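[Meeting: bench + compute handoff]

Bench side (C.D.) handed over the final construct sequence. Compute side (W.E.) agreed to return the predicted structure before the next meeting so the bench team could plan truncations. Sequence as handed over:
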Amino acid sequence: MAISLTGNIRTKRKTFFAFVSFAMIFLLAFSNLRKIKPRLKQGLKIFNYKNMIIFSPYNLKMRHKLGAYVVDYYEFVERNTPKDAKILIPPQGFPWPMTGNAAYSRYFLYPRHLISGKEREMGVDLKKENIKYVLVIWGESGELQYDFTHGWPKFSVPAKRIIYKKPTDEIFNFEKIILEKDFDPKDIKKDLWGLIEVDLDRI
């Protein structure tokens, strides 16, 4: 009888300690839940359709990776130039690490031929090279390099027209602002990225 009673006490003690341990773990987890909850919500945002990298359409993946401004701008240039176009782009370096990199930009704009200009002058003979388009771009980076500053081109260009991508927060909104005037570098603004259609007859 004494042995049986001792066994029961040990069993009850084990049960009690197991219950107390479980209760402590539960309370500890519950007390930290409030701290974890905001981070958990933030982490779960990846399952939002627009931010799901694996299952998103290609254009959404690229916007997520490179930034909406850059990807939308490449698509804007592609839509407004023929496939055989020759386009003058900014010199390579910050603030144009992507758009000023001919090899990189060619991935998005192929088979168009991209030619690097200089910061404060064309650097090439537009007429001789038959370059019919020049990018108008503020710069996709806040960093600067080689004494470059934001806004390009920094020189006047005789133009048939200037096509600006209308600033918008909407995805893939390709509304345009078309100006029939020559390009004046004083007109450059941070939120206006565009394309100059060069008037080669006036060069």
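W.E. noted at the follow-up: Residues 43-56 have pLDDT under 50 and may be disordered. C.D. will use this when planning the next construct.
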